[in-house]
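All the exercises in this workshop are built on plain-text protein records. Instead of coordinates, the fold is spelled out as a row of discrete tokens. Once this layout is familiar, the rest of the handout is easier to follow. The record below serves as our worked example for the rest of this section.
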Amino acid sequence: MRLVLSEEGVRNTVMTSEDGQVLYKTSTPFRFGTRMTSLYKVIPNENPEDMQDNFEVIGEIEWHVIGSSTLRLYGEEMKTKDFMPRHGLLRNKRTFKAPDGRSYIWEAEFSVVHLSRDGESRQELARSHRRNLGIIGARRDPYLEVSEELEHMLDMVVLTFIYVEKLRMDDEEAASYSV
């Protein structure tokens, strides 16, 4: 499955299927202090005459500069320092236990993040792709490619992706200032 993002900035974007059907959107209003990203999911409209998308808030990320940020999914609150602790030589990995009881690991590289099952095989199950302006190769919007194996927990994958991708983008921006 491919979730196409309207913007590379994951805190304010719309995620669609390849055929353009809106599936999720994120919104992070500007304010001083602690910022909150809301994750909305499209709820099927029962009226076939009404083509308006209806959204329901399914998750939130409360961003903290100092201390642990908080993820919420369907009302369950998870502190990132406990739920997705940072580890690895470069501290660029975050492992979490999903509702299916398995452990998964997000790894941030310089320009992408990818998700694999934690363990020996480290089979890649999701990967982000940056926008391509078409100068070299075909033009494409940014997207998150997710294995069918994860469709049963897609909401969790999307919420954790938003978190790790925003952190990766912050690291990328900080590195550009240090040059």
The chain has a mean pLDDT of 92. The radius of gyration is 16 Å. The longest strand covers residues 54-63.
